Amino acid sequence: MPTRFRSIDALRGFAALWVFAYHLWNAFCPGYTRQADPREALPLNADTPVAVIATLPVLGTGYAGLGLFFVLSGFCIHLPQARRFHRTGRDALELRSFASRRFWRLYPAFLGSIAIACCAYFLMNICWRRPLGDDGLTLAYVLDSCGIGWAGINALFLLMVQPQALALNGVYWTLWYEVQFYLAYPLLLKACRRWGFAPMAGLLLGLELLFALAPAPEYLAGAKPHFEWFFLRRYFEWFLGMLLAEKLAAGNPLSRRSAGWLALAGFAAGVAGPANLATWAIHELAFAVGSCGLVGFLIAAPARAVDAPAVRVFGWFGDFSYSLYLVHMPILRMVFALETLLPTPLREAGSFAAAGAVCVVAVPAAAWLLYRFVEKPYMTGRPTSQPPTRIR
Hints:
The protein is mainly alpha-helical. The protein has helices at residues 6-28, 50-55, 64-88, 95-129, 139-146, 148-155, 173-195, 197-213, 224-227, 235-249, 256-272, 277-280, 283-299, 303-306, 309-319, 321-339, 344-348, 351-375.
């Protein structure tokens, strides 16, 4: 069994690029996303631009990359543990070591992205949202326009307490989920070993469906944005990756045929789901099931497929996919804020489209710099004089 799957790196890169493409697409096709409540989305009819119709199935569903990230996270976190269990017959999960690895792997790059997000938020405010007033560039104006208070809320993972802080960088909600996933993982592992993976799969699926379909009790109406960010609302998706890792370590992985059909069914249901309100509520779960099939399909792929050019290209992006995911929205915000300062003739001549092209180059470049100088030195713990060269 290989110790490293390059196809997993490629999927990380693909997921990050897919989410980035989705947010860039939203800038040019506002209002058509099916991620929001279908009652709020613009209808698709004969008046809908052809470009929207053509790009919606792929670019307009890029938020499905979040479910793919959750599946990949569960797979990568559990695989070493599953291999240890099937080799020795015991888990022996070292909680302190596990927590330390997770902290140093995630937090330095996260903190660096918060600094970038504050700069982007300030630039957006000073360019068009909150231009300087008669008082000029005061300290109060700078602190407020940078979103310093929201930076602290995000850095301490307190989004559930103050959801408005998500305005600093719209992707940070997934980090809050990940932290909860990690905290619950030791208990989930014990439960799976004691009662089995199938009962836990049924329980977590039932809880996710309950969160998605059942109306919230009246006494929780005021806590709706907070309550919806509880980890059980998405934990089944993370568990799918964990289940794939367990089956692989046990020598009983999904067959390519089964995984392929699972991927096709899941993604087809995800694309069709927003057609009505009932299925929209679970269409992201369908995307996650499709992602599970996709991961299972690629880890079972022969070596010649893993060496394909597309896998190598996406794998390169996969090396810094975490940084790419964290900074793509702040960089988009910076570029489009600066575009508003251009003279009117240039803006009428298509500077908005040019700004989109700039983002295609600027986002990966900024992400690679964050990865190289902030994320990479901490990938296996505290920085050393010779930091690791690959993600493990």
